[in-house]
Design goal:
Elements lengths: L2 H8 L1 H6 L15 E2 L5 E6 L2 E6 L2 E2 L9 E2 L2 H12 L4 E2 L5 H11 L6 H9 L15 H22 L16 H12 L3 H14 L2 H8 L5 H8 L1 H10 L5 H24 L11
Antiparallel strand pairs: 1-6, 2-3, 3-4, 3-5
Helix pairs in contact: 1-12, 4-8, 5-7, 5-8, 8-9, 8-12, 9-10
């Protein structure tokens, strides 16, 4: 999965909303501010990277110095701030939001608690709940979700099944333990990215497949929104409404995916030696 593609998808909701009349855009819980800077730059300090807005150091909502662990992540954040026009629209800055969450940890959770939050979705995973009717939706769910569920169980040596009941399918303790162990191998920053992806997609199965690069963002979106898209194909969509929601969700999912990869993959600088 190309990082450039993910980065473009992170910005897709911003680009779409710029073409939508303001009356059609849902207001978010962010305070919009006038842009107060002209340039955005990055500086490295003791192995971490900081963002500069003109001569000001970027800070988190709680007032901490905004420092990220990789240059690639800093570039992604820098791009978001550089793309702002007259108004700073923080609700469109997905990478910045994820970094702020990791830095401030506003809910004060430790690594174990974040993992527990992620694994909670095992009981409500979208791909595990199937309809009994209509038949064409049942067939669609079987055709699209079963291969992914089979891949997941094979990849992680788990035993997750589907159900048509309103009661959640039984998830063996061994399955929970294996998935917990997998998550424990990730750092705290990556776990916040995993949590964001799982919450957005409402599925551990789809989110893990995305992080493993088994599927791409568009495919993850299609699998997560399978029933909704089925209903839209039958009854149509609300003008602009469904489109805005789709692009906003895609931006969040792409950002979470890119975020996880950028905080877990290591890079090495190679200095050229003059001959």
């Amino acid at each position: 999965m190309a990082f450039k593609t993910l980065a473009n998808q992170c910005l897709s909701s911003t680009l779409l909303k710029s073409r939508i009349p303001a009356t059609n855009v849902l207001k978010r819980g962010f305070r919009e501010r006038k842009k107060f800077y002209k340039s955005v730059s990055i500086t490295e300090s003791e192995g971490v990277f900081e963002i500069n807005l003109d001569q000001r150091k970027l800070k988190t909502p709680s007032g901490k110095l905004f420092q990220v662990p990789s240059e690639a992540l800093a570039i992604a954040v820098c791009t978001e701030w550089d793309k702002q026009t007259d108004i700073i629209k923080q609700h469109n800055m997905q990478m910045t939001t994820l970094c702020n969450t990791a830095l401030d940890n506003p809910t004060g959770r430790n690594k174990e608690q974040v993992i527990t939050s992620i694994l909670h979705f095992l009981d409500t995973d979208t791909v595990c709940y199937r309809q009994e009717l209509p038949i064409d939706l049942v067939e669609l769910q079987t055709r699209e979700w079963d291969p992914l569920l089979d891949w997941f169980n094979s990849r992680y040596e788990t035993d997750i099944t589907s159900t048509q009941s309103i009661m959640p399918p039984a998830v063996p303790d061994e399955t929970r333990a294996k998935l917990k162990q997998h998550l424990l191998t990730h750092n705290e920053w990556a776990l916040f990215g995993y949590e964001s992806a799982v919450q957005s997609l409402k599925s551990i199965v789809v989110a893990f497949a995305l992080m493993d690069r088994h599927i791409h963002v568009e495919r993850a979106m299609a699998l997560s929104r399978l029933e909704e898209e089925f209903q839209i194909s039958k009854w149509g969509e609300v003008e602009w409404g469904h489109r805005i929601d789709h692009m906003d969700l895609q931006a969040r999912v792409a950002a979470a995916t890119l975020f996880v990869h950028l905080v877990t993959e290591t890079t090495h600088k190679i200095k050229k030696i003059a001959v």
